[in-house]
Amino acid sequence: MVTGNQNRAPRSPPAKRRGTTIQVSLDKRGKTGVGRTTARQPLAESNHKKPVAGTSDFPGVKDSENGEVVFGKEEVEALLNEVLKLKKLDAKGNMQLVTDYSKRLKLGLKWSFQEQEKLETELETSRKKCIDTETEMERKVVDLNSFLLNLKNENAALDEKLAKESSEKLDALNHHRLEKDARVDAERLQASLSEDLENIRKEKLAVDKQVISLSETYKRLQEYNTSLQQYNSKLQTDLSVVNESLTKVEKEKLAVVENLSTLRGHYNSIQEQLTSSRVSLDEAVNQKKSLDNEVKCLREELQKVREDRDRHIVQVQGLTADILRRKEVTEKSIVDLENLAAKSQALQEMCSSQAEQICVLQHQLATANEKLKMADLSVIESKSKHEGHEKTISELRSNLADLEQQLISGENLRKKLHNTILELKGNIRVFCRVRPSLPDDGVASEAIVSYPTATESLGRGIDLIQSGQKYPFTFDKVFNHEASQEDVFLEISQLVQSALDGYKVCIFAYGQTGSGKTYTMMGKPDRKGLIPRSLEQIFQASQALTAQGWKYKLQASMLEIYNETIRDLLLPRSSNMDIVRTESGVSGRQYAIKHDADGNTHVSDLTLVDVCSVREISSLLEQASQSRSVGRTQMNEQSSRSHFVFTLRIFGVNEGTEQQVQGVLNLIDLAGSERLSKSGATGDRLKETQSINKSLSALADVIFALAKKEDHIPFRNSKLTYLLQPCLGGDSKTLMFVNISPQPSSSGESLCSLRFAARVNACEIGIPRRQTTMRPIDSHLNCG
Ligand code: ADP
Ligand code: MG
After folding, report:
1. Which of 111, 263, 274, 284 matches a 20 to 30 Å C-alpha distance to 222?
2. DSSP conformation letters of 539-598
3. Is 33 annotated as contributing to ligand binding?
4. Percent of the residues in the chain that have a pLDDT greater than 70, as a whole number
5. Residue 466 phi, psi (nearest 5)
6. What protein residues have CB closer than 5 angstroms to ion ligand 2?
7. Counting atoms of ligand 1 from 1, which one is nearest the CA of 636?
8. Which residues form the Kinesin motor domain (predicted)?
9. pLDDT higher than 90, residue 29
10. For residue 535, pLDDT beyond 70
11. What's the predicted TM-score (pTM) here?
């Protein structure tokens, strides 16, 4: 009933968060996530096409110009909140109303899919745009910052250089001034020296003249001296001649004296001669004396002249030395002067080059300042741009948040619609899973299954090839041999979630022995199956709901139906005496199945274990699988020859809202569905197989009777169908896995399984109902 929507418990949080894992709906019709929004027509509709009534007369639905039906959020909300006015005793009318309502809901769902798709694309583009802009901006800011930093560094370096150059320039100017002073001093000195030099030159000239005159005098004096010497020598010669003549005279005197005696005659004369000679001698002596005096005088004069000359020579030498010295000094000062001139030239050159350099530096500084200004301007510009961008980003962000909000509400709406459609549809959903080829299978000659690639049956179709003939099938979902345990669980996680929301959920695996039923339901320690994964999810979700005031109590039971006998798999081993199989298949303890008015099933004496953690459940599963009956057939050494039923009862109570929910999760691993001839069983095994086949055909009978809406549904024909009556009878959400083996030798069995599954899939067996109540005051969790 539609009124079942009232007093709804809060939706459990989705199994996986958006963005990390695709949230999965019960079947792929409403699969969320990017790129997987193709909605599928409900199977009942696709398999039995019925004419669609016009929509223009639907309340809250508008017709667009091109004739398409246009929905709005309000229309959909109105549609959802619409209460169907069903008339008593007018089943046909009511049916028509429900059908119309369902069609409108379908249209609404379609619209919500389109809306969601649009919103997702919009969101994606704005996200991308936002990310692009952000990255671009960040890159720009980083670039500008580094450019600014470079410029600042350059500027600092230039400033430093400028300061250095300025101080150098100051030094150079000081130096230049000093040099200038030195040069002026040197020039002054040079001028005075030049004057001195001039004076000295003049003096030198005068001295030269004097020297020349002195030399001339000296020459003359020498000549005079020579002449005097000549005269002296002449005088000496004369003297010697006189002396000789004197001697001669004396000799003659002697001769005369001699002759006097002898020549007394001559005495007088001689006397006279003597006297005259004496006079002449005196004269000569006087002459000699005067000459001697004259010579002495001359000698003195010569001496004087010589002394004078020597003095002059000394003076000349001193003057020459002085001149030489002066010359040297002058030369030195000329050299100094030249050096100083060269230095001053160099300094001037340096000065001019430094001035040039300063000019260049000033120019550089000006350009750097200009650049800095430009950079400042560009920084300001980019800052304003950045601010603009940031504004845009924040706008985009708020837009994004809005869109996300819209998306979330759209998603919620879609879920609501999807759930409503599922509830209204009411047929058993069927998933098909093909296991991979195993090493034990041997080399397969050819593949017996293929998967159609047409869009309408993508992921839902499977073709079985037998004896060259192709048998096509379509289910709610087909998992090929590559599908992982996680892929499979993702598809059913929402169904498991509904158990927490108060639904009865029943998932069973059907297929021949060795097709992968136990693998799908239980899995392996490293590749966990649906049962452990479902329990983990329920624990996590129930813990997450405690924040909203929900408290959950979980009770697990595990049984198997072997040869039409129920066995408690959680009984302690010692007390489990009743598990001994008897020839008749009747065990010691009888477990009675009872259904109460609320549609809850009770099995008398069955062990119910309160579970509080995943670990506890794991050990229970371990215990159950150990005590489970396994037989040996040709097909599968560890094949289960019994139906395994895991039941988790969920009791939830919300202290805040006084709400109570009761959900049930049944996970069933059916025994192999193969026909008798195949397993080659005899004796006990034959009996087992017969029993299994009987219960499976009872299951089929129940389903088909339900589909035909027969008055009598043969639930009691087998323990399995009786146990599952509330689940099959239309109150629960039921999903069947049909497991297929890829072996060519199993193609016959596979075809049977697929045909059975297809028939089940086409059955409409009822509308699932949630079991929620308002809690009576002071009531406590009642686990029934
Ligand atoms: P069933 O319970 O239907 O008799 P099982 O679940 O025991 O079949 O599977 C038979 C064998 O095939 C097991 O060894 C199991 O590990 C393997 N198997 C089944 N399905 C798969 C799968 N999807 N991937 C890998 N191995 C699988
Ligand atoms: Mg098995």
Report:
1. 284
2. HHHHHHHGGGTEEEEEEEEEEEEETTEEEETTS-GGGGGGGSPPTT---SSPPPEEE-TT
3. no
4. 80
5. -135, 130
6. 517-518, 640
7. 4
8. 427-763
9. no
10. yes
11. 0.50
